[in-house]
Specification:
Four copies of one chain form a homotetramer. Chain A is an alpha/beta fold. Chain A is built from 13 helices and nine strands. Chain A folds into two domains: 161 residues, Rossmann fold (3-Layer(aba) Sandwich), CATH 3.40.50.720; 121 residues, N-(1-d-carboxylethyl)-l-norvaline Dehydrogenase, domain 2 (Orthogonal Bundle). Helices cover 51% and strands 12% of the residues of chain A. Chain A has a six-stranded parallel beta sheet. The first copy, chain A, starts with a strand and ends in a 13-residue tail after the last helix. Chains in contact: A-B, A-C, A-D, B-C, B-D, C-D. At the A-B interface, helix 8, helix 9, helix 10, helix 11 and helix 12 of A face helix 8, helix 9, helix 10, helix 11 and helix 12 of B.
Chain lengths: 304, 304, 304, 304
């Protein structure tokens, strides 16, 4: 009989992960601020509760997938009731993309209730979450990591334990998102230069992804950027900006100049200022095209 | 019996390619400014000549692999004797990394002698050239491309014909080198942020290359940058700077702002100013580390 | 008989301003976290108190000069005792460089006690404060501004009322500090290019300041940067970085990309990473020089 | 009786300078590619000639004011007839904004004919040229400088001899234009941040120019940028871009990273890509405004 899992946060990522857990035979007790989001999960057999603290049981395991640092602190970090209930032996697998400093602060607070905090941010968008193909970076105590590995195997195609420092997995996750954002910027500039010199954007994208950049990031993003397909969003630009802010904040507090992160931030910010926050984050490329005098993309009608 | 090939320029790339052609059964007549570089080739059966024009025969095929735009213009573009000798039906496969504008100018000049100019820059370093594993971008008349395909198959693992515009292949090649340089910058910043936040550089490099960036560029460069192994150079920083200058020049003349190319240029230039022009171009990462207050790398002794 | 003024914060700026007020005949009641800093002021006749709230009297005027947003919020914004005591008709002239958002938040909190908050950040370093030569930007209710004008005339050579929005004066102050930091960056690059092309730095600085840039900012900073005199600090680099962080934070929350502010931030951060936080903020120029391969400046011995 | 002066190049700067020389009593013999431009000068008593070499007399003085390096090289540098005619004791006062390397190369070529080349680029727009209020930077042999000083006094409000290196004055001039372009960028960002935070652009511009930036550059440019008055151009954006290219070229060849020059270059290039090359170079500020989501400026009708 599998363990009961408390699940907090049923956004598009959280819902997909919770669904996979239910399907894998776990008993899931879930909470979401907007309860209606949980209905599909409920139909599969999960229990929905009305307060975050109600997902926890003594010494149990909870997973969280929340929007940002503030939500994580409010719903769990400052929720004495929840932490007390979880108590000695409890484990919190915290899958949101947050600042390393937030994880470290929460780890300390959890410990005062005997709860182990594991940072476990993921790489992959909702489609990867639904397919159980996430990559998961974990940091925190090794014993707790061993305990949650069967759960991680349901959620992802691979996981990496990055040591005891609660913040380490967040550092890795932020670095990866920064690498993706940098790839978007680089592809945007390369494809724009190609276009303005008579070489088709799609040809250029395929050349790169077909030779030395034959990997998911270049294949997926290259096509989107080449075709200027910025809607519907697979990952919203406003969320990309949020993550780059965390990168710059982490860089600043560790005295690490990151001029490329600054450049990407300024391009995301320009896109937001133009009302493109709900477009896909590859729409950063529209800033590069427009600066080259090419026409601004017009929002597409979403596929019916 | 295979065609005779005239080969101009026996630098580390040219020598490797010419060697493969000889081994594949082509009769090669080669010229290099410093004749001694051709001796190994001569021992394999190639003929060395003392003037560039002596490699050509009427209606024949020549390949060139020269240091830069200036060398290409001097040795071939302005070499009336060579072009006249090659004459009607002759083909020049020009494999150097040069500006698209240079290729276009040369294509025009060649045409006045009935010679077809094909731009054919390559992706890959000398080890890939020796292994016949280059990627080759070709542009120029389709008929000439068909004629040289058997030769390209000896030199590379794949080739792409990008249309009639002589400059197109150079645009693609410059865009790829820009993408690599951008990758170096991005990895440098990501690994430095990781290091300053307690996560080992090699761990971070392996995480990226083991998940969504699982491609040669990230695997190869990630390791070099993580370990700070900048000598011996696989591709010299001064040559990387030369290529980024061509990128910026092409961008400027086509009115394409490329702020990331400017950033990479400034980092390469700083490295050159510090006397690091002979290090590998991944040493751009040393600029990022030093700006974060980490110690400057010291040149390694080269392996004996 | 002049009004009694409560003065909070006796750093180098605050002490100079409070001293001028005493000399001008105001009765001053002052508080500083480290009481000993107030002794010179006490000898001139000011009263030192042991709690911030003790500087206030009903309907009176207080001035504050505190290190940053956090200090301002702790010592005054969240100090219910102080605000209640000041009460209806009281005015707080808040001279620290803080975020516009901080001023707006405090203005709201003050209003609940009947206290008027005036943002009044200043342009000028301690020597200008001592000479009563500050420039003062004020924002908040006009009636309160009229009341404090005689005080402003003691402290500065000119003041500007920028309207009712409490944050306006902070916006103006941050913009000015950004302009100065940009001037430092621009001069650093210009003088380094001059030096590397055979023209003496001091000659170049004097040419600019003697022609179209004949104003205090270029005259003062030009000389410091030309001579590489970064110690003793007239304004610490770590404080300059703090202000640029406020600029970027204000820019980010208002969706205003400021790439030059990002550049300056990254240079300040690099200087901090190298242990130069206590140097003058013109030491940003050392980053530019070092990137050009020129030797790093060595800390000077301070004049005896 | 005053010396005869040969004058080459009657653009808006050249015509204004030549006019002042005629009015000051000099005998002027002038050439311009488009002869009609010289008519107003002819009416004042100047002689117009049909070939550049006809302006010169043995051992005489010529002034040139040409569009760029290429024009200067073609019309004078490679004009053997002109240099031979000028011959031993001749002096060429070269007032165009060109690369230091161009001046050095021309100085060498001139010397072979016994002609002294003086670089003498100027600060100031056509209105300053007309008023005899230019600032003039001179470099080259001191004796020749002494000879031309009376002429310089007619043209400008001040001149500076920067030593024997022919390129030195060009270095200084390029550095000044870079400082102005940087000022435009800085003001653009500062005023945009102000505007987006509720503070009027003109208020902000006046605050800066009325306090620590009380100098011509900030007073003049601040107002133009605040009001978005980009037409008619006082100095065309395309010419500003030309000068920044010279700055970056000089920086590159001397291994001086200038990230702020790169940033300004990219903004000018974006403006050119959008068809704004004929606007005033302060229109760089429109790039900053648009990136902040503010509406693009529309070309004004020129004053009637």
């Amino acid at each position: 009989m599998k363990e009961t899992i408390g699940f907090i946060g049923l956004g598009s990522m959280g819902l997909a992960m919770a669904t996979n857990l239910v399907k894998a035979g776990y008993k899931v007790r879930a909470w979401n601020r907007t309860a209606a989001r949980g209905e599909p999960l409920s139909r599969l057999g999960a229990t929905l509760v009305s307060r975050p603290e109600d997902v926890a049981e003594p010494g149990g395991l909870i997973l969280s997938s929340l929007a940002d640092d503030t939500a994580l602190e409010e719903v769990i970090g400052n929720n004495e009731g929840l932490l007390r209930r979880l108590g000695q032996g409890g484990v919190h697998l915290s899958m949101s993309t947050v600042a390393p400093a937030t994880s470290r602060r929460l780890a300390g607070g959890h410990a005062r209730h005997g709860v182990t905090y594991l940072a476990a941010p993921v790489l992959g968008r909702p489609d990867a979450a639904a397919a159980g193909k996430l990559w998961i970076f974990v940091s925190g105590p090794a014993a707790a990591y061993e305990r949650v590995r069967p759960v991680l195997r349901v959620l992802g195609q691979g996981d990496f334990h990055l040591g005891e420092d609660a913040g380490a997995a967040n550092v890795a996750k932020l670095a990866c998102n920064f690498l993706i954002a940098s790839t978007i910027e680089a592809l945007a500039e390369a494809l724009t230069m190609a276009e303005k010199n008579g070489l088709a954007r799609t040809t250029m994208a395929d050349l790169a992804a077909g030779t030395i950049f034959n990997c998911p990031a270049y294949r997926n993003y290259g096509r989107l950027i080449a075709e200027g397909r910025y809607e519907p969003a697979l990952f919203k630009l406003s969320l990309g900006l949020k993550d780059i802010r965390l990168v710059l904040q982490t860089a600043d507090s560790s005295r690490t100049p990151m001029p490329l992160a600054s450049l990407v931030h300024d391009h995301f910010l320009a896109a937001l200022a133009k009302g493109r926050g709900d477009w896909d984050w590859t729409a950063l490329a529209a800033e590069v095209s427009e600066d080259a005098g090419l026409p601004a993309p017009r929002p597409r009608e979403q596929a019916g």
